[in-house]
Each structure stands twice: as structure tokens, then as C-alpha cells.
Amino acid sequence: MEPTGAAAVIIGNEVLTAKVVDANGPHLIRRLREVGVPLRSLEIVPDEVDVIVEAVARARLRAKYVFTSGGIGPTHDDVTVRAVALAMGRKVVRLPEMVELVRTKAMDSLTDEALRLADAPEGAVLIHQPGIWYPVLTVEDVFMLPGVPQLFRMQLESVLARMQGTPVHLRVLYLGLGESAVAAVLDRVALDMPHVAIGSYPMFDPALDYLVKVTVESVEKAAVEDAVARLQTGLPAGSVVRTE
Amino acid sequence: MEPTGAAAVIIGNEVLTAKVVDANGPHLIRRLREVGVPLRSLEIVPDEVDVIVEAVARARLRAKYVFTSGGIGPTHDDVTVRAVALAMGRKVVRLPEMVELVRTKAMDSLTDEALRLADAPEGAVLIHQPGIWYPVLTVEDVFMLPGVPQLFRMQLESVLARMQGTPVHLRVLYLGLGESAVAAVLDRVALDMPHVAIGSYPMFDPALDYLVKVTVESVEKAAVEDAVARLQTGLPAGSVVRTE
């Protein structure tokens, strides 16, 4: 089966060592949900070529679209381009179009290291966008976004504008009983309706008026309503505090 | 080489679908850094047995300690115990000690589903702790923590209290030049001192008085100071705005 949806690889020693809290992962998760592209997985890995190669290769098996964050730039720790090329069995080449962009940007302070920004996996395509000189570097459906949050967000929007998502329908049931008391009913409905995703989340906050939050979702609205109706029928009388 | 450090697997459809923002990953990252246990990777995966099995197996190759978050409980979406058992080639067994705990907790409302909380990979060990009836479920160095943030944090502390970390020494240089202008010097020092981790982070905030933040770290303090001295010598005069 052809993979669908998206997978993300966050390249970030700085995240894994708690020097910064990753903002790109949560932002990507939220935006993909909003446009209706399901996210299969998100992995945070160090700035090490072999680990990134494996993560990107795995992401490509899991999902149609792969987003990487970080490791783009002219310094020694910017290894994403090399890793993505390896993961896809491609050479790294210097793109003449990017060389021109880097030259124009750098003007009279051009260094050899600056030209590393013009390197890309062979066959890469540049998505140009207003407001930022550096285009989105993409090869097949792998989008190599920069780690700097402002740039990541700007480039992400250029990519998302080209995607066609499928909105998800979500209903929520708030239950006044604990998970152990409702698990058998949830089991049965989840088993009967494998195309509907049912999640059960216990809460341990005495300030809340419920003990368990149950989420029911699918791209098919009718299936969601059917599952909610089955749950309401099966659950012990009075256990549903409210629904959303 | 025997793996060291830690790796994390966050089991969470609710995170990948943007229904909640993961708090456990960032908390774990911060606490591991504080106690000096290096984190090798963090992966967020859906509540699917096969994907979790692969992620846990991979985490065990990368790191000595593996933390999972979520998927612990009595409902159909709680598949972590089964997945960890599969990843480690063990059977799932019902632990008599846990059966007693669940019985005591549930009192007269014990259900078959509640007893699922007593299932664990064969050979699992329970770490008991004050203030919470549910012990930390652990097998070898895999710690299966619950996804509910309050419980995750409490159980994490019980685990960390048993670990011996190595604090990391960190110095930071703030530079007034862009990455392309300093990349050659960073390259050279990074290549000469592979046991020191050097990170380079461009900033695009005009309110800041620097353009690039360079981090230098190692468990050896002298190596960090040596690398900082080499960088200060090699970098263009006046490019270091300040150090920390």
C-alpha cells in the first residue's frame, strides 16, 4: 500500500540537550491537523548523519510526505542535506540556481562556506516564496525546513499550500466512570469499527467533572456518529457527563 | 560498544493528532539533562503495536535506558505492555503482586478489564513509590511510564533517583558575525576535538545583539575550556560579543 500522510524528523542536538524547547514539532503537528494531513510519527534525533539517514528512510516508508527541521546551513553541524541524499540514494550536488541566490544575498562577503547553502540532493526542487530569499529545499516529497522557528513556519506554509488534506471529524464523550468500568464497551465498539479511531484518556484532576475523556474520530462523519451512538447505548446509564 | 544514555518513545495518537500538546517529552528532556543522562532520541508514535515494537527495539539499540510514555491502562488503546514484551521477545504475564494491588485499589468494583493493569512483560520488576498506588513497571532498563503528566512526572523521579548521571559542562559564545563568516573556524575546532560537541545556531531576531549562538559542551571541563580558547583565537577579532 502506498504510504499516505506525513512523518517528521526534527534534527536537533539543542533540543535533546534541553538547550531549547522544540517549537517546530508542536507547530507542525497543529498545522497538519488543521489542513487534514495525518501525521504518522515524529522523531527527534541528534545532528548525526547515520541516525538522520535511518530516520528519514524510515519516515519515507511510513508516510508520503516527510518534513525535516534543522541542520540546514553552512556550519559543520548542518548535515541534513547530506543525510537526506544518502537516505534517498542520491548524490549531493551544487545547484546553480542556489549559487546565484547565495551570491546575491552575500554580495561582497561571499565565503566558501556560504556556498554550502547551495548544496542539495541531486534532483532537488526549490519552492520560491515571498518574504524570504532562501527557498524551500525539496526532493520528491521530502521537505527540508530550517530549524529557526520563524523560517520553519514561513516555509511550512509554502509547502502546506500545495497539499490537499482531508478534514477529520471528531466527537468527544466525557465520562463520570473510570476506565476499568468502561473498557469492555470501548473495546467492543473499537473492534467493530476499525476505521474509527477511539481514544480513552483518564484524568486525575479532582477539579474536573469527569474521569475519562473518550475521543471518536474518522474522516467519515457518519461513522463517527454511528460509533458515538453505539458507545452511548453500551455505556452504563448516566456515565456520560456530556458530549462535544 | 555497549549503548549508554537514554532514549524515549512517546506513545500518543492524541499528541500526533494535536488533541494535546505533549508535556512529557519536554519534561523528560529537561530532567535527563539536569541529572546528566544524555538523551539519544525521542520518538512520538501512534498507539499501534507494530510501530511501538520497532521504536522500542530501536531505542534499546541506541541507549541503555528506555523510557516509554503512555499506552498504560485497561482500555483497547493501551498496548504498550504488549509492544514492549514483543520488542524484548518476552511473553505477557499477569503479575500476582499487581493483581493484589489492583484488587485493593478497585475494592468491590473490580472488573476483568481492571486486571489488565496487572499484565506485564515476563520478568518485569515493580518499583514502589510513596504517594501513588501504581508502581513503576520496568523490565531490564525499559521504564513504562503512564501518559498522564502528573503520574509520568512522579514515576520519572522514582526512576531518576536510581540513576547515576554525568553532568555536562557548557559554555556559550555569542557572535556578531553570520554563520558563513565563522563556519571555517567552527569546522576546524569541531574536527580537532571530536569529544567536544559544538553547536551553531543562527538567530534572526533584530532585537538581539548577536547573530549566532555557539554552544560548546563536554563532560570534561578542561576540554570545553580548551575548545573555547581555540575558537576565541581563531574567530575574527571583535566577533565574540560575549561568552557565558
Task: Name the descriptors.
elongated; 6-stranded mixed beta sheet; 8 helices; Alpha-Beta Plaits; 12 strands; 2 domains; 244 residues; alpha/beta; Molybdenum Cofactor Biosythetic Enzyme, Chain A; homodimer; 36% helix; 4-stranded antiparallel beta sheet
3D structure, described in words:
Two copies of one chain form a homodimer. By secondary structure, chain A is an alpha/beta fold. Chain A folds into two domains: 6-160, Molybdenum Cofactor Biosythetic Enzyme, Chain A, CATH 3.40.980.10; 169-243, Alpha-Beta Plaits, CATH 3.30.70.2860. Chain A is built from eight helices and twelve strands. In chain A, the strands form three sheets. In chain A, strands 2-1-3-8-7-6 form a six-stranded mixed sheet, with helices on both faces. A four-stranded antiparallel sheet of chain A has the order 10-11-9-12, with helices on one face. In chain A, α2 (24-35) packs parallel to α6 (149-160) and α7 (179-192) packs across α8. The longest helix of chain A is centred in the N-terminal third of the chain and has 14 residues, at 49-62. Chain A is elongated and about 75 Å long. The two termini of chain A are 34 Å apart. At the A-B interface, α1, α2, β2, α7 and β10 of A face α1, α2, β2, α7 and β10 of B.
